[in-house]
Amino acid sequence: MQLSFKRLFLHFISRNMITVSNLSLRYGKRTLFEEVNLKFTNGNCYGIIGANGAGKSTFMKILSGEVDQSSGTVSFTPGERMAVLTQDHYAFDEFTVIDTVLMGHKEMYKVMKEKDALYMKEDFTEADGERAGELETIFAEMDGWNAENNAATMLSNLGIKEDQHFKLLKEIDGNQKVRVLLAQALFGKPDILLLDEPTNDLDIHTIAWLEDFLAGYEGIILVVSHDRHFLDTVCTHVVDIDFSKMNIYTGNYTFWYESSQLASKQRSDQNKKTEERVKELQEFIRRFSANASKSKQATSRKKALDKINIDEIKPSNRKYPAIMFNHNGREAGDQILQIENLRKELNGEVLFSNINLMVNKGDKIAVLSENSLATTAFYEVLTGRDTDYKGDFKWGVTINVADIPNDNTEYFKAGDNNLIDWLREYSEGDKDEQFVRSFLGRMLFSGEEVLKKSSVLSGGEKMRCMFSKMMLKQANLLLLDEPTNHLDLESITALNNGMKDFKGVILFTSRDHELTETVANRVIELTPGGIIDKLMTYDEYINSDVVKQQREELYALA
């Protein structure tokens, strides 16, 4: 019983804290972190943000012990258990799904296996019996007898059906494997959760479950995510990595972003008096404190915001691309796009059929489907890249279309051109270098960066080049298939603002909840049986019982 008392004692004295002291990390001449000092406390969820390459995932690996810092220390409250969302999708391939989840509680799983091995012995001794008794006590303290049932429930909540639970992990597909590894991290109520991009490959319903789960979590959570809606829903604090420094700010991502933008605006306004600035900041905090009641983390965040000191609000050094689609060309007429009885099959599978749609002036349409191949095929048909379909569609004579495809590989195949020459090819009018440079500059390509070969670009850089190309075209209708792929939070935020400000028509598909909710004024869903078409917001659409019923009927027809 001494072990039981020790566990109980540690539970009561523990305030669950992570302390980072004077932490630095250097790779050769490059400094990733310099003299970082932070404290993470129980009951809070910290969103780790920073530009691509700032070191978000590396910091998480330092905390988990996977990467060693150059100097400084990371200390934890004694007795805490940490769980990490693994990025190695093959590490557990030879284990069953249920065992993979149970292994998330390493100590309990070790006890369980030792106990089972003892009972399997043919020459079971008195000493074995005593050891088995000790293990049974420890196992019961860990709620081990309910472990398998709890693991199965978590798997079901994450969309893994019961008939998959006893398959080997290598026998299930990639999306399901990601969910199993997430279940492993969440299993057994660890004191500390480190989650790097936990919403990847999750559908909106599973993300909603995860948001609820984390919102009620009592331990310490650190999360890296490009999903702003998710960060806004679960985070009580933001940890900003900028110029090798890390700072903790109270509030979610939107609070951090809007407060830093306000502080930047105030800093540039030299004529505004100090008392006016203070009043403006106080009103900003008050407004956000009132709105915090809408959040699943409402209580803790509202208390924190009510106590915030205006000195905590500082301008960000982060750079945002200027994604501005507004065109100077011909305005769209009344005839935009008409689609009649459109149908597409792929390898004998019906992706969509009976698609009848009239696009109107001012429409910003979110295009959804349970099958991502269907939305991509829809855009491929409308752009003329795919001619193997049935039905018809007609663009209005005034319509000038620009698009971002799901796969932009074709645009960068040659790879020999520098960025100026690459973009110049798409300029139908002015091909002057300074003119082309101006569009690249808006996408944060400046100085020598514009001389980069297009073949060496990262995924995010390629997307920013595609936005430069799109802006250059001055189109009055945009087609965007997963435009946030590979983008950092700054680029996603800039894209979101650019789409909201655009005066033309947009048809787009995005897994970014915030972008879809704030841009779309109409939602359509492609199914094998037909189309669902609603003039409503994204949140209204996904919560509509009428839509759910219509979806069931259309899939039954297919």
Would you kindly provide a written description of the structure presented here, covering whatever features stand out?
- The strands form four sheets. This protein has a six-stranded mixed sheet with strand order 5-6-7-3-8-9, sandwiched between helices. Strands 14-15-16-12-17-18 form a six-stranded mixed sheet, with helices on both faces. A three-stranded antiparallel sheet has the order 2-1-4, with no helix packed on it.
- It has 20 helices and 18 strands.
- Strand 10 and strand 11 form a beta hairpin.
- It folds into four domains: 2-246, 3-Layer(aba) Sandwich (Rossmann fold), CATH 3.40.50.300; 252-312, no CATH class; 319-400 and 474-558, 3-Layer(aba) Sandwich (Rossmann fold), CATH 3.40.50; 415-473.
- It is of the alpha/beta class and 558 residues long.
Which ranges are low-confidence, i.e. pLDDT below 50, for 5 or more consecutive residues? 1-14
Highest CATH level, the class of the largest domain? Alpha Beta
Annotation, overall tally of beta strands: 18
CATH architecture of the largest domain, please? 3-Layer(aba) Sandwich
Task: Give the structure's gist in a few sentences.
With 558 residues, this protein is α/β, with parallel strands linked by helices.
Give structural attributes.
Rossmann fold; 558 residues; 4 domains; disordered N terminus; six-stranded mixed β-sheet
Topology:
Elements: H1 2-13, E1 17-27, E2 30-41, E3 45-49, H2 56-64, E4 71-76, E5 82-84, H3 97-102, H4 106-120, H5 126-141, H6 147-157, H7 174-186, E6 192-196, H8 204-215, E7 220-224, H9 228-234, E8 237-242, E9 245-250, H10 253-268, H11 274-291, H12 298-307, E10 337-346, E11 349-359, E12 364-368, H13 372-382, E13 390-395, E14 401-404, H14 419-424, H15 433-442, H16 459-473, E15 477-481, H17 489-501, E16 505-509, H18 513-519, E17 522-527, E18 530-534, H19 538-542, H20 545-557
Parallel strand pairs: 3-7, 3-8, 5-6, 6-7, 12-16, 12-17, 14-15, 15-16
Antiparallel strand pairs: 1-2, 1-4, 8-9, 10-11, 10-13, 17-18
